[in-house]
Amino acid sequence: MSSDYFSHLTEEEKNILKHKGTESPFSGEYNDFYKSGIFVCRACNSPLYQSKSKFDSGCGWPSFDDEIPGAIERFRDTSLGRVRTEICCVNCGGHLGHVFVGEKFTDKNVRHCVNSLSIRFVDHQKLQQIIFGGENLWFFQKKFKELDGVYLCKVNKVKKTIFDHIEFINKTNVNFLKFYFNSKKTTLETILNIFLKIYASTNFLKKNTNRLLILCNDKKQKLTIENLMLQKNKILKNPIFSNILLYEDNV
Ligand SMILES: [Zn+2]
């Protein structure tokens, strides 16, 4: 747990995120709150939950039945004379609350019981998700992680069905680079410029396997990327054949 992440917090927030306190039930600003967006860690801004996972359990704290993959860490908690599972932010270690399984509130049968003071709501316009599909994206992961306002940047293996109608030379080597970014800190154009600059300089183009997949989480983002790709391809010696698709589910 790095103390830097907590230095900007109020005493109330610190009491929960750093010292594992609990806010009073029905007191938090997100207990009865259902706008569309993403909930990030109040200490480090890392995305934790999507609003579509939020539900009303009636318990008095914000409840979620799923987390953003890779965002939450679980710990055995034996305080208060019972065994519970504590949940913390993976990035900064900040305490969020506890997770309960088997209560049958939703189909997923999971309830993340989270303190409002541990999280902050960000609407979708400010925090976007983007997914690049291609070959050998590990190097890009390292580059994008260094950018300001980029969160949960990770290369994943993917469901191969997504590539069924896309002509990659070697589908077995294809993977996804997925991350969230705050467009006020790093713009979509900057991200695309960095990506294409590295992509165009790799050996893949020389082998004529320059096919790229970009999965967008909204129509506006898709349109912006299509326009940027058009402009880029006008100046590239070997145009990049990209498939830009709308894809809203987690992959
Ligand atoms: Zn955090």
Describe this structure in words.
- This protein is α+β, with helices and mostly antiparallel strands.
- The protein has two domains: 3-123, Metal Binding Protein, Guanine Nucleotide Exchange Factor, Chain A, CATH 2.170.150.20; 127-246, Peptide Methionine Sulfoxide Reductase, Chain A (2-Layer Sandwich).
- 20% of the residues lie in helices and 31% in strands.
- The strands form three sheets. A six-stranded antiparallel sheet has the order 3-4-8-7-6-5, with no helix packed on it. Strands 11-12-10-13-14 form a five-stranded mixed sheet, with helices on one face.
- β5 and β6 (84-89) form a beta hairpin.
- α3 (188-201) crosses α5 (219-235).
- The chain is elongated.
- The two termini are 29 Å apart.
- Bound molecules: zinc ion.
- Zinc ion (ZN) binds at residues 41, 43-44, 46, 89, 91-92, 94.
Characteristics:
251 residues; alpha+beta; Metal Binding Protein, Guanine Nucleotide Exchange Factor, Chain A; Peptide Methionine Sulfoxide Reductase, Chain A; five-stranded mixed sheet; 5 helices; elongated; binds zinc ion
Please describe the topology of this protein.
Layout: H1 11-17, E1 37-41, E2 47-50, E3 54-55, E4 63-64, E5 72-77, E6 84-89, E7 95-101, E8 110-114, E9 119-123, E10 127-135, H2 138-145, E11 150-156, E12 174-182, H3 188-201, H4 203-206, E13 211-216, H5 219-235, E14 241-246
Parallel strand pairs: 13-14
Antiparallel strand pairs: 1-2, 1-9, 3-4, 4-8, 5-6, 6-7, 7-8, 10-12, 10-13, 11-12
Helix pairs in contact: 3-5
The structure holds zinc ion (ZN).
